Automatic annotation (TrEMBL):
Protein name as it appears in the record: Sugar ABC transporter substrate-binding protein
Signal sequence region: 1-23
Keywords: Signal
Family annotation (CDD domains): PBP2_UgpB (cd14748)
Domain of life where this protein originates: Bacteria
Native organism: Reticulibacter mediterranei
Gene symbol of the encoding locus: malE
InterPro entries on file: Bact_solute-bd_prot1, SBP
Amino acid sequence: MFTRKPFLAMLLTSLFFASTLLASCAGGGSQQSGVTTLKVWFPGSPTPGGPEFSLVTKQLVPEFEKANPGIKVDLQYVPWENLSPKLNSAFAGGIAPDIFGHGPAAAADFVANDRVLPLDTYINNLDATTREDFGTILDGGIVGSKRYMVPLSGQGFLIAYRTDLFREAGLNPDNPPRTWEELRTVAEKLTKRNGNTITRSGFISNLEGYNVQQTFATFLIQAGGSLLSNDGKTITWNSPAGVKALQYLVDLYHGSQPVAKDLHSYALPAAQQPLVTGQAAMALVETGALNNIYLSAPDAMKNIAVMPSLKDAQQGAFGGSGPGLFINKDSKHPDLAWRFIKFMMDANTLKSYYTVTSGIPARSSFINSDLVQKKPFLKQFIAAYSTFKPNPNVQNWVQIRDTLSRHLAQAMAQQVTPQVALDAAAKEAAPLVGK
């Protein structure tokens, strides 16, 4: 969804003309001796022989091939940092895979360069139960009015909290904050100080790099604002709602009674995370961080719960679809490629897949599954799907996001006011919007 680096738009544009000339030999897959080979690239770097790698390559792919005689799947994992350059070269050479995974932020650039196939016909032919089960997660790959991606998982940001620290402060962990006002009040009760130094933050969020934009988007949504207009052509983050959201965040860290300390620790191992060590009582997190704690610090996880999305003007959270699968427009076997994607969407397939990955189950019916019983922190994320709003699927989004992030960081450091930061970001990003 949201944090992966997509294609460099200018590079893709220049390579598009070369790939067009080679379209006659494009298509990824091949057909020999009655066997059709589908070339599939999954993003990521799972350890060879590890749980995800073994499940996908040794179980799921053979299951698909057994159910579809005559189809062989050539599946490769491509590290995220290599994915865009490798796809660029493959498109230019007419040898891109039939199916490839990427984040939704890349969708608009793929579409602008005519590299991916619209999937609406296939999706509309799914049974109603499947479409309803995926719900708004299927909207993650929408560009314009068409769908181009099928998400394998969801991603989102909610506030996790230490139930034991709630009790220690005389708070009811079964009744966590539901509004900004309540969050501030509870955070003050949970914050510990040694003089003017915060020794335990009542609340923290990730302000490192582009993560500050995701934190801001969470509160912007709850304030009733948006990053861009509905048509994606106008910047709206510097609205009164945007200023209110950013001021609220600044005050949490720098107000007359700050409750947050910038710990710069989100990249640390799970056992050193602030929620685990007790350096923070509440933290805005995504499921990957909680999954790492679940796996590496299970004793701490027993004292960590997740609250529903907060509300100011409205209830909401930053989130939506995670990475998903696209079909190369030049694939010679689009129907067979869709057959593989449909297999990956199957409930039984996904139940296996989610046991070894950290995303939110894309099917809302999984909220009562054994998987969620084992990982109860997932329940609130699935329940919050209807309140999730993602970053816009527009061209140049990564450059736009990074521009906004730089100015947000200046406001969070109190170098400029929220209004000045948001206006400056809007002015700098304006030439990139609506292209």
